[in-house]
Write a structure and sequence with these properties.
Largest sheet: none
Number of helices: 3
Helix content: over 70%
Shape: elongated
Radius of gyration: 36 Å
Length: about 110
């Protein structure tokens, strides 16, 4: 059998009920904010922005690494150009541009 004796006064019981109602109201307000469409959309936007920032950051690091590797192929330890590598690449680029220009000119005729 349950103990039904309560040594609190009616005023104490009312104060306890009032406190519990306040806590319940705060909890309901918080839950209402969490499920509000604007809150859900804002959270989703924040997650997407974070994901994009992370992806862009990784891409930046990767591109930086590749640029550093390419630069290392065409410069020596002191930063001076390696002519034995730069000249053949420059000649190849000029040849490709020339062939493209010649092809474009022939199509126009």
């Amino acid at each position: 059998m349950a103990d039904t004796s309560d040594s609190r006064t009616p005023a104490q019981i009312e104060a306890d009920i009032r406190r519990r109602r306040e806590v319940l109201a705060e909890t309901l307000d918080e839950l209402g904010m969490r499920v509000h469409p604007k809150t859900i959309v804002g959270d989703a936007k924040a997650k997407v922005a974070s994901s994009v920032d992370h992806t862009v950051g990784r891409a930046y690091v990767q591109v930086n690494r590749v640029v550093g590797q390419v630069k290392a192929q065409f410069t020596d330890e002191k930063g001076a150009p390696r002519l034995e590598r730069v000249v053949p690449v420059a000649v190849a680029v000029v040849a490709v541009v020339g062939l493209l220009a010649l092809g474009t000119r022939r199509r126009g005729d």
